[in-house]
DNA sequence: GGCCAGGTCCAAT
DNA sequence: ATTGGACATGGC
């Protein structure tokens, strides 16, 4: 198969996939395999472009939000000097445009979890209840539609823990078509509507709005964002999440979500570095 | 081996 | 309107 080459300036594919917004991909020494909905494709970075097998140009531009004017976003956010370290750490980070239900389900799974585990849960759900999808010799499974999500009991057997009930109930509501109307609603109403789903409150709703519906004003406050915001913008004072969110929307407006994502990636990267640096120089077993 | 994880929900202030 | 505890499990 001859690969399709799609122009993709200012795009760091690896950074974007690793940024914790999306879990349905894997890396090997020859690029990445990605599944979005029913579409399974291969992608690898080229200079200012993407080499793609298994997806068309239109899809690639849409999924990787390649028509988002990232330069303008970065320029606007650079007026905030306190954002410089995060901006410098994340050149080419973009939002993906995920399937709304899959994204909602994934972020229900994300509650009090961690990225490797979320990816595992999502993968288990797909293997157990999705449809097989093939590309060359690669065989994956699509993420199950709401009607194909099993009972709470089954989900507990899949080790979803207390998220099992949320997901089972959310699936029942989503099967009724709640998500279909979201795209047409203004941000606040879309958010309220999403929050009708069990397991979807402020934070998860904002993740879905950001990662599936392209609402860049959404500002999910998780433990990392709480920590970094309190440290950098509230002088260490402990404040309620809604104050953090209000502050972010006041300060960054329609770009708050992008500020959030680079702060998230940057704060985790620096935390990891700090942990590595603080490891004992020698192990006890030598 | 604990601590904490891309929180939400509900009951008790 | 705010706050604290329960909720399951696994990474690191």
Structural notes for this entry:
The protein has 286 residues and is an alpha+beta fold. 47% of the residues lie in helices and 12% in strands. The protein is built from 13 helices and seven strands. It has helices spanning 13-17, 57-63, 70-77, 84-89, 100-109, 115-129, 152-157, 163-175, 187-194, 202-211, 223-233, 241-252, 256-278, and strands at residues 4-7, 25-28, 31-36, 39-46, 49-53, 132-135, 138-141. The strands form two sheets. It has a five-stranded antiparallel β-sheet with strand order 1-5-4-3-2. A two-stranded antiparallel sheet has the order 6-7. A hairpin with a 2-residue loop joins β2 (25-28) and β3. α5 crosses α6 (115-129). The radius of gyration is 19 Å and the shape is globular. The model is unreliable at 279-286 (pLDDT under 50). It binds a DNA duplex (13 and 12 nucleotides) through residues 20-21, 107-108, 110-118, 120, 156, 159-166, 198-204, 207, 220-225, 240, 264, 268, 275.
Record the SSE blueprint.
Layout: E1 4-7, H1 13-17, E2 25-28, E3 31-36, E4 39-46, E5 49-53, H2 57-63, H3 70-77, H4 84-89, H5 100-109, H6 115-129, E6 132-135, E7 138-141, H7 152-157, H8 163-175, H9 187-194, H10 202-211, H11 223-233, H12 241-252, H13 256-278
Antiparallel strand pairs: 1-5, 2-3, 3-4, 4-5, 6-7
Helix pairs in contact: 5-6, 5-8, 5-10, 9-10, 11-13, 12-13
The protein binds a DNA duplex (13 and 12 nucleotides) through residues 20-21, 107-108, 110-118, 120, 156, 159-166, 198-204, 207, 220-225, 240, 264, 268, 275.
